[in-house]
Amino acid sequence: MGAPAEPPAEATLIRVAREAMGLSAETAAARAEIKLSGSRWRQIEKGYRGDMGTEVVAPHATLAHMAWAVGVDSDRLAETGRTQAAEILREMERSRTPAAATPATETAPLTELAEWQQKVILTALDERPRSAAEKALLLRTLATQIEAAGDAKENGVEAPLHNTPDQDVS
Fold first, then answer.
1. pLDDT 10s digit of each residue in the chain, 170 long?
2. Could you give the CA distance from residue 56 to residue 71 in angstroms, rounded to a whole number?
3. Does the model's pTM come out above 0.70?
4. Whole-angstrom Cα distance, residue 38 to residue 48?
């Protein structure tokens, strides 16, 4: 069996939304809340799996998660005829904030700092070998502590930044 003449409408919608966000298939797949590889993402977008010579149609839940990752809403997904996937996506919309609507400061907290400040923070994080996930956790922990200290100060209470017994931020 050869490649289909055109990918399914939902696959084209996902691809266009991904490209409009400037994301690679790998980056978009990483944003999905399910385990999905960049190559599988591309197969779904193409509607075809070249190594097997077979057509590919995304399962409903997978398609909903892909749409979520690139900011496609349930109404637009339903227009493609994938109503079950749109129902899953509608439930996701009711219960969470889409990845595409995440504020830039949440996805890139260092961008508002001067370059020298970013380098100081990243150098401190690199003093000990850490995974990207560990670095992200450290930054989130510090941000939470800073926000709590700021809130306390606004309420007239001095709250020093500190490590909690179960956190190691060194």
1. 566 678 999 999 999 999 998 999 999 999 998 999 999 999 999 998 888 888 999 999 999 999 999 999 999 999 999 999 999 999 999 987 655 454 444 445 556 677 777 777 777 777 776 677 777 777 777 777 777 777 777 777 665 555 444 444 44
2. 22
3. no
4. 14
